[in-house]
Amino acid sequence: MKRRKVDLQQAPVTAAKGVDERFQAATPLRALLNKVFPDHWSFLLGEIALFSFIILLLTGVFLTLFFDPSMKEVPYEGSYSALRGTMMSAAYESSLNLSFEVRGGLFMRQMHHWAALLFMASIVVHMARIFFTGAYRKPREANWAIGMILFLLGFLAGFTGYSLPDDGLSGTGLRIASAIMLSIPVVGTWLSASIFGGEFPGHLIIGRFYIAHVLLIPGGLLALISVHLGLVFKQKHTQWPGPMRTNTNVVGERMFPRYALKQGGFFMAVFGTVALMAGLFQINPIWLFGPYRASEVSSASQPDWYVMFMDGLVRLMPNWQIYIGDYSIPPLFWPAVVGLGALTTGPIFWPWIEARKTGDKRIHNLLERPRDNPERVGIGAMAFTFFIIATLSGGNDVIADKFHISLNAMTWAGRIGMIVLPPLAYFISVRICLGLQQHDREVLAHGVETGIIRRLPNGQFVEVHQPLGPVDDHGHPIPLEYGGWVVPKKMNRVGALAPAVKGFFFPVEKPAEAPVSPGMPPVSGDDREEITSGRK
Amino acid sequence: MTSDTPAGRRLRVFSRRRGAPSKARRRLGAAVRMVAALALAGGVYTAFAPGAFADEPRQLSATAQEGKQLYDNSCISCHGRDGQGVDDRGPSLIGVGSASVEFQVGTGRMPMTRQEAQAEEKKPQFDKNQTKQLGQYVQELGGGPELPAGELYEDVKENPEAIARGGELFRVNCTSCHSFTGAGGALSSGKFAPALHDATPETIYAAMLTGPQNMPVFGDNQLTPDEKREIITYIKVQLQEDRDPGGIFNLGGYGPSTEGIAIFLVGITILVFTSLWIAGKS
């Protein structure tokens, strides 16, 4: 028999050709792999959320293999001696067994919880980046709205997950949720009764939350994340203004191989960070909380951090009960239903509100530096100050205890701070933006400060400035136009010193090989007047 | 007329007795009643009064004498002579018992640095022996709760259920102020429930028995001595000796507050630097 000749070099080609002939994959794949993504560290913040979601799916699947979402009372017979013999729900028992009996179970549970906190934290940080750079402007308004809904879904996923182990802390959270439902006028009692299947806590809620937590909410998250990313692909990623970057192009790296490699590496980094935290820091020690009993409420019973702002609003609310005839509206209704509703749905409409206010109907693919839009920065600073004060107030008993402050003083500080500090934050951030703008213009008009002081014959001292562009007949720089991007402000940035130390986080301080202003040629070493020590 | 009926006669008899007796007779009657009442009171007192307290002045034991010395030097300005208290400065110590001294003085809370919402724990001013002497003195002033002799916690090896029962009692009775992890918590207006991490069994027992500062009293009919010992076993074994799995740091056991701080200070910080690093490599 004759041996068949196999050309190893040709093997991948023939295989790929075979795939293409069957699935016609080459054209769409080429478009995908050649897709260009702009590169900036702040564009990676949203990826942290995506990657923590993947970790949540992986660890979550592991947890479902051992969790029993039942409220049947069983005696605990496991290895944790401090609860042995205690009657508890099967959900709590299986969570304990998951932690103590299953190999690696506690680590997985802690990873799941830390990944959930990281998911929400990175959503907020990513959202701040989008907001302060104006990335939500036309045509990306819908993606901003989807992002807000993703936060809301994450909020619900977090809350249902927090409730599942049925321990003392999660039961307290459920009790608060039921109280919030009950506070809604007219429909409250029916709403609570239908969700809990009768009087709180009933014996259905864990099963219902379980299906919401492992199927409905993750399904919604997965669908919306797909749309979110699909829109980024379709509408293309925004980019910073800068050399060769315009409103109609995208400058960056191709999807394959560099961008994909970087993303793969970043996923590993996120995974590693979550695993590190899960291994080092204890989170939610359910075995100390005991099974849920309505009579046991611990001090420092807080929700996870992303729900804490609501808890804080409730704590700060004065006890104003409103009576209308036979009905009453409890004070809890305002912060927990109206406040939470307004704070999570209101921001969805921000892109349209801003566009209406400014009358801006243009398409924006270039980002805006925060300093170039002081009013937006001011409003963002105001919103975040409010959010931070509400969140801190959610933990005000812990702060009061550990820093030896009166709890009553903390409450009043929160109430007053909530009204006084946001406008102050608005004012300060607007002034900072204007100051930074001013400084940029100054450098463009006069050049970079060299640190060289020259004494004139009449005794006057002047600082020598390095012009960034051409000079007129008297040697004065011709003012440059601002290009919406970083203005070099250090001599190193314009090539005064050869880079000596290799940058770890940044590429080496390279001279701006690019126009610092539209219409100006790139600066290169030879064109510039040499800086001397000041003596001619 | 009704005066001839039996009822009318009774009425007559009654009204005759209500007629005013002579002055001398009234005086005599009063004197007789007075003597009788005095004799009764004196007789009952002699019959029931404990002989020891009848002696004046009070005889203090040798230990209490030492304690009185310390008391007169360090405590008297607020708690007054013989522990009778001073208005707006310090409460009376009659009847608070030696367990109270064991807690307040043994943990350094007394003498207090200044008048404030609650006495802070600090380095004890008196050593163990002096605390015992002070306790004995206060005990002899007017009785009160005392620490029982013997071990104040159960041996987990001999009595393995003690820790689970103690945990249950801890969650019912203690967590609402001291929190699930024993990390302590805030009360209103600057008052607080202290952390239990370095509390000794004696301190905890004395605290339950006497209800110091803002803590309620858990007397022996609320929590039996056995139940108190079980709670102490739980605190000692589970919360203090760190049998708590789940990593190297428990973030203070303050619940989701510190977990939220950790995710930003550790998680987000690491990843922002990572993204700076990755984006820097273009």
TrEMBL record, chain A:
Keywords on this record?
A: Membrane, Transmembrane, Transmembrane helix
Q: Where is this region: Disordered?
A: 511-536
Keyword set includes Metal-binding: no
Domain named Cytochrome b/b6 N-terminal region profile: which ranges?
15-241
Annotated membrane-spanning segments are 41-67, 113-132, 144-164, 209-233, 264-283, 332-353, 374-392, 412-434
Concerning Gene3D superfamilies, the annotation shows:
Cytochrome Bc1 Complex, Chain C
Query: Enzyme class, one word?
Result: translocase
PROSITE patterns with a match to the protein in the record: CYTB_NTER
- In short, the EC number is 7.1.1.8
So which cofactors does this thing need?
Answer: heme
Q: Kindly state which reaction or reactions the protein catalyses.
A: a quinol + 2 Fe(III)-[cytochrome c](out) = a quinone + 2 Fe(II)-[cytochrome c](out) + 2 H(+)(out)
| InterPro entries given in the database record | Cyt_b/b6_N (IPR005797), Cytb/b6-like_sf (IPR027387), Di-haem_cyt_TM (IPR016174)
Name of this protein: Cytochrome bc1 complex cytochrome b subunit
TrEMBL record, chain B:
Q: Which domain of life is it from?
A: Bacteria
Residue ranges occupied by any Cytochrome c domain in the UniProt entry: 62-239
The protein's topology relative to the membrane is: Multi-pass membrane protein
Q: Where in the cell is it found?
A: Cell membrane
User: What EC identifiers does the entry list?
Assistant: 7.1.1.8
- Please write the reaction equations for the catalytic activity of this protein: a quinol + 2 Fe(III)-[cytochrome c](out) = a quinone + 2 Fe(II)-[cytochrome c](out) + 2 H(+)(out)
Q: Mark the transmembrane ranges.
A: 260-279
Q: Which UniProt keywords apply?
A: Cell membrane, Electron transport, Heme, Iron, Membrane, Metal-binding, Repeat, Respiratory chain, Translocase, Transmembrane, Transmembrane helix, Transport
Under PROSITE patterns, the record lists: CYTC
Q: Which Pfam families match?
A: Cytochrom_C, Cytochrome_CBB3
Listed under subunit, the entry gives: The cytochrome bc1 complex is composed of a cytochrome b (QcrB), the Rieske iron-sulfur protein (QcrA) and a diheme cytochrome c (QcrC) subunit.
Name of the molecule in the record = Cytochrome bc1 complex cytochrome c subunit
